[in-house]
């Protein structure tokens, strides 16, 4: 049973169809990428999932039941893209306050805060104020406040922005860890290399519509262009009968596209028969970045206002 | 409910623990006392001593008469000039006078006012020359008395025997107008200050949450309405705490003054306060003050909160949007001043029933006496309409708040905010 199912969600604002009929489901324990260009409707979608907005139409099923914002928000952790903490409040008190707002008892919250602070080496921060922290430090704090109440569903909007590689890895490891322990993570970002590295499943939205939905592996297969990189000596005398065509060279490798109806083995066969020595042969799968750009390209970069 | 309580606690504790709260709580009574005593002191200090040359050709204003007046009142010195009149007219400064008065022949039988001029290089207000005028009038009266053959005894009968009229409410003997006026003024002014100061604190608090983007984190845990209500209640409790501390301060000063029994000013103050407390219904006034203070605060704070949620970090936007609200409070204080002069006039009655002005205006009427000046039905109607009023503003503000707190970009107009308020869900 998926942890979250969205059925035909719609949310229209005065001048925009922010979310226009989007459905997808997120499986338990998955790291799920919610992608899309700026203004695609991601934030609106997330705000409906976190109970901040009510959808105009459609249904949200959370953990097998109709989503009930008042009670279910205790099982959701949300880290918005624009980080927010009280600047003048002491860090310990603030973390405790946010945890209690999520429904934890004081004793329980204190115990968990202590554990997380030790894990992230933040013990000395307790009596400091947020305004004393650097951007990266407050990011770590924000992450802790998001996951502290052990939510079933964690929504992270650009969690790595502003973090150095060391702290990025720390957070990344925690994300894997949380997923391993049964939490589901929805991960919203523009950084495609992170998506490829972390996510199992992605959904791409643009202009309020879902335009792509699948596992990272599957999507890459779907968008592959039968390109291979062959590391070999000069491939000479092409006569048009080979099972491939050369489309370019890169780093002393030939980039070839296999012709329709042929298989990679045919290519190798052909080259071996020609007596060409091969030292590498790799399939080139499109990067998510390329797929993203390809799909989103052609639509105006900024969303236009529209009449509804 | 539990979550609202958490929010109230946070709003309350973070504010009460701030140094500015402690300082302002201590400083306000001191400033208030300083203001009262300081004003008297400044008035005393700023009174000028006038050195006036009197050039008399009427023959009535003699050197002896002037000398006698100078000994009665030393705030000015009148000097009779005989020989060097020309020199003084050309340059009184050099002769050591602030100015001079030229008196021509006066007909003592005339029934008209005689205008004299105090000629000087500087401008003086009537407050400064009043003393000189009084002296001249006393001399003139003596002259007239003498001419008419009125002796001192008869003259005393003429000037001192007069009729004084004091408005007394026969049903409510305790309602002494003077005391009621000063209590009414203090209550109205305190509510005015609380509405403006703590109302804008609510606005700033909401703006802080919006610009820090903490609002988005919090509304993923609690409903925006709870968040707003928690803030208003929390800040309301801060105001209440400050108010109780001030009452405690007054009682401590009162009791110390009474116990020490030392004479002079402290004693006089204790006496005044005792007279004040015995002449009015203290429990009723305190209860009403608490009610109008809280209900009025809810009424205005929710509006200020709604504005805070609608604007961005720009203070000017907030000011321009909150201007109409602030004007309502200022208008109330304007009505209050006329109410104190005439607590049963129609404008006072209506302004004390209509919610926006009732917190200040009704509080200015109650010290004059319930149920004689303010009938019970008026008090009841006023309270009921204020409760309904604040329920409406809180509801309305909640609607605006929910949309505004997550909306960034252009400042909305009042029209747009109204649209948010009446939109479904």
Structure commentary:
- The complex is a heterodimer of chains A (308) and B (425).
- Chain A has 308 residues and is an alpha/beta fold.
- Chain A folds into two domains: 4-221, Rossmann fold (3-Layer(aba) Sandwich), CATH 3.40.50; 225-276, no CATH class.
- Chain A has helices spanning 42-49, 69-72, 91-101, 106-119, 135-147, 165-180, 192-198, 216-222, 264-273, 288-296; strands at 4-13, 16-26, 31-35, 57-62, 65-66, 76-79, 153-157, 184-189, 201-206, 209-215, 227-232, 244-250, 253-258, 278-284.
- In chain A, the strands form three sheets. Chain A has a six-stranded mixed sheet with strand order 6-7-8-3-9-10. In chain A, strands 2-1-4-5 form a four-stranded antiparallel sheet, covered by helices on one side. A four-stranded antiparallel sheet of chain A has the order 12-13-11-14, covered by helices on one side.
- Chain A is elongated, with a radius of gyration of 24 Å.
- By secondary structure, chain B is mainly α.
- Chain B has two domains: 51-158, 3-Layer(aba) Sandwich (D-Maltodextrin-Binding Protein, domain 2); 177-422, no CATH class.
- In chain B, 69% of the residues lie in helices and 5% in strands.
- In chain B, helix 2 (19-46) packs across helix 9 (224-260) and helix 7 (177-211) runs antiparallel to helix 14.
- The longest helix of chain B has 37 residues, at 224-260.
- Chain A binds chain B through residues 47, 50-52, 54, 70, 73-74, 76, 78-80, 82-89, 97-98, 100-102, 145, and chain B through 3, 6-7, 10, 14, 208-209, 212-223, 406, 425.
């Amino acid at each position: 049973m998926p942890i979250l199912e969205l059925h035909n969600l719609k949310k229209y604002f005065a001048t925009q169809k922010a979310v226009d009929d989007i459905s997808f489901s997120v499986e338990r324990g998955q790291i799920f990428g919610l992608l899309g260009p700026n203004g695609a409707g991601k934030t609106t979608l997330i705000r409906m999932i976190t109970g901040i907005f009510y959808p105009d139409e459609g249904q949200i099923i959370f953990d097998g039941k109709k989503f009930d914002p008042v009670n279910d928000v205790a099982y959701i952790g949300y880290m918005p893209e624009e980080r927010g903490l009280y600047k003048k409040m002491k860090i310990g008190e603030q973390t405790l306050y946010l945890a209690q707002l999520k429904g934890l008892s004081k004793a329980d919250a204190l115990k968990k805060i202590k554990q997380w602070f030790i894990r992230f080496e933040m013990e000395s921060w307790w009596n400091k104020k947020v305004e004393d922290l650097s951007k990266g430090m407050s990011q770590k704090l924000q992450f802790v406040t998001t996951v502290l109440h052990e939510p079933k569903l964690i929504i992270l909007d650009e969690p790595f922005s502003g973090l150095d590689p060391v702290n990025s890895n720390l957070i990344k490891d925690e994300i894997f860890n949380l997923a391993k322990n049964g939490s589901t993570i929805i991960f919203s970002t523009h950084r495609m290399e992170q998506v490829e590295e972390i996510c199992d499943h992605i959904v791409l939205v643009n202009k309020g519509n879902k335009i792509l939905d699948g596992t990272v592996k599957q999507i890459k297969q779907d968008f592959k262009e039968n390109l291979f990189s062959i590391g070999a000596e000069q491939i000479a005398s092409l006569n048009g009968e080979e099972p491939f065509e050369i489309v370019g060279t890169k780093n002393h490798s030939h980039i070839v596209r296999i012709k329709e109806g042929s298989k990679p083995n045919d290519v190798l066969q052909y080259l071996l028969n020609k007596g060409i020595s091969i030292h590498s042969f790799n399939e080139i799968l499109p990067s998510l970045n390329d797929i993203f750009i390809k799909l989103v390209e052609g639509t105006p970069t900024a969303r236009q206002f529209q009449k509804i | 409910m539990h979550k609202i309580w958490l929010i109230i606690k946070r709003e309350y504790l973070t504010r009460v623990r701030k140094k500015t709260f402690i300082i302002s709580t201590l400083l306000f009574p001191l400033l208030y006392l300083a203001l009262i005593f300081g004003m008297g002191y400044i008035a005393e200090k700023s009174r000028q001593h006038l050195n006036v040359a009197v050039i008399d050709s009427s023959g009535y204003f003699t050197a002896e008469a002037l000398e006698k007046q100078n000994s009665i009142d030393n705030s000015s010195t009148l000097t009779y000039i005989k020989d060097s009149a020309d020199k003084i007219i050309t340059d009184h400064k050099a002769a050591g006078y602030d100015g001079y008065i030229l008196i021509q022949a006066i007909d003592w039988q005339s029934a008209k006012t005689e205008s004299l001029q105090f000629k000087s290089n500087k401008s003086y207000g009537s407050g400064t020359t009043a003393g000189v005028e009084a002296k001249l009038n006393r001399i003139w009266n003596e002259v007239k008395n003498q001419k008419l053959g009125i002796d001192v005894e008869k003259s005393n009968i003429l000037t001192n025997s007069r009729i004084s009229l004091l408005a007394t409410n026969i049903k409510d003997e305790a309602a002494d107008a003077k005391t009621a006026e000063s209590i009414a003024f203090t209550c109205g002014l305190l509510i005015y200050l609380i509405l403006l100061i703590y109302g804008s604190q609510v606005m700033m608090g909401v703006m802080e949450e919006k610009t820090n983007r903490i609002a988005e984190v919090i509304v993923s845990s609690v409903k925006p309405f709870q968040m707003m209500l928690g803030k208003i209640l929390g800040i309301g409790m801060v105001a209440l705490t400050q108010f109780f501390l001030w009452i405690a301060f007054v009682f401590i000063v009162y009791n110390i003054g009474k116990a020490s029994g030392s004479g002079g000013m402290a004693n006089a103050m204790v006496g005044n306060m005792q007279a004040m407390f015995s002449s009015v219904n203290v429990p009723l006034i305190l209860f009403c003050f608490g009610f109008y203070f809280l209900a009025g605060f809810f009424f205005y704070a929710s509006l200020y909160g709604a504005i805070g949620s609608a604007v961005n970090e720009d203070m000017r936007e907030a000011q321009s949007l909150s201007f109409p609200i602030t004007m309502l409070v200022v208008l109330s204080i304007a009505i209050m001043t006329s109410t104190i002069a005439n607590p049963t006039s129609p404008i006072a009655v209506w302004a004390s029933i209509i919610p926006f002005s009732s917190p200040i205006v009704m509080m200015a009427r109650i010290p004059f006496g319930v149920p004689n000046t303010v009938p019970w039905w008026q008090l009841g109607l006023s309270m009921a309409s204020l409760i309904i009023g604040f329920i409406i503003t809180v509801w309305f503000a909640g609607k605006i708040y929910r949309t505004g707190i997550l909306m960034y970009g252009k400042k909305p107009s009042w029209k747009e905010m109204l649209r948010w308020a009446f939109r479904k869900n």
